[in-house]
Design goal:
The protein is mainly α and about 170 residues long. Helices cover about 75% and strands about 0% of the residues. It is elongated.
Length: about 170
Amino acid sequence: MDTQSLTGQLPGRRTATTDAGTASRDRAWDRTWVRVLAVGAAGAVLDWGGNQLGWWWVTVLTGVAAALLLRGRALAAFTVAVPLLSWGAELFRLWTATDTTRIARVTIGLAGVSDDAAWLGYVFTLLYAVLLCAAGAWVAAAARQLVRAARRGPTGNPIEQEETPSDA
C-alpha cells in the first residue's frame, strides 16, 4: 500500500498537520464558498430582475458589487457564471415561449453575417452580458486600488502630514 491510500491525501500535501489547524482552514474554506454562493445567487436574481424591467445596466452594477465583496478566482467565477445564468435563462425562456430565432436571424443578418447563423446572435448576447459584468468588476477593482494607493502616498507609507513652521 502507498501513502496516498493510507492517508487519503494527494501526494505533496503535508500529512503532519494538527487537527485544529485543519479544522479552522476547512471552516474558513466553507465560509468562503458559502459567501461566494450567496453573492452569486443574489447577483443572478438582481440581473434577472433588472432584465425583466429592461435595465440591462444592472449587470454592470452586479459586477461592481461582486468586486467589492469577492476577490480572485471567486470574482472571476462570478463574472462568468452570473451573467450566463441570468441572461442565458432569460434567453432560453424567450426562445421556448416565443421563437426568437427569427429575430436573431434578422439581427445577425443586419450585422452582415449569414442568415443561417442565428445561434451566433445568442452567443454574442451572452458574451455581451459577461463583458458588462467584467467591466463593472474591473471598475470597482481599479477604484479600490486607487483608494489604497492614495492612502499610502507616493512613498508607499501611509500619509502622515509633516509639521511645518507655518502650521503652528
